[in-house]
Amino acid sequence: MSLLRLGGLALSALALALLALAADSAAAARARNPAPVRKAGYWNVSVTTNRSPAPRTRRVCVGAPLFRPRAANCATYSVARIKDAWVLDMDCRSPRGARMLLHSVTTGNLAAKYQTSASVQVSGALDPARNGRRAINVSWSYLGACPKGAAPSAVPVD
Q1: In-domain check, residue 150
Q2: DSSP E strand boundaries for 9-155
Q3: Residue 38 and residue 24 in contact, taking contact as beta carbons nearer than 8 Å
Q4: How confident is the model over 62-75, as pLDDT tens digits?
Q5: Residue 158 falls inside a structural domain
Q6: pTM summary value
Q7: Could you give the CA distance from residue 125 to residue 55 in angstroms, rounded to a whole number?
C-alpha cells in the first residue's frame, strides 16, 4: 500500500479519511442540517501542507460515507453548514492519549470536485515529531467508477 508523506509523517488511508471528514458526519445527520454525501467512486486526491508544500497525489476508491470518529474519542465534534461550506470542529484523543484539535472547511461539489482546508493541532503524541500545528489542503476530483476489483474504501489503489 502506498502512503503519502505529511512532512516526516506517513499519510495513511486513515489520515486521508480524517482530512475528508468534513464532508460527512453522524452528528450532522442528527442535527437540522443533513450530512453531505460524497459521490462513491474513484477520486484523485491531492494533499499539500505547510510542512510539505509540493502536492502529493494519489487515487483512491471510496464509498459515499466517510470515516466518522467514535464519540468516546471526541470531547467536541460538530459539523455545520455555513453558506456554501461545511465546517468541522473536533477535539479528539487517540487511544494512546494524543490530542488532536481540528478545524476544517469543505467547499465545492461533492459529486465532482471539492476542497478541504484544515488546521490541525496535535499534542501529547508519543512521537514528538507528530506534535505541533499543521495547515493541510486537500483537493478531491472525481474520476469515475472504482477500478474493477477495487472495493470502496479510503485505501490508495495506485
Answers
A1: no
A2: 9-11, 41-49, 56-62, 74-82, 85-93, 99-109, 113-123, 132-144
A3: yes
A4: 886 554 555 578 88
A5: no
A6: 0.72
A7: 25
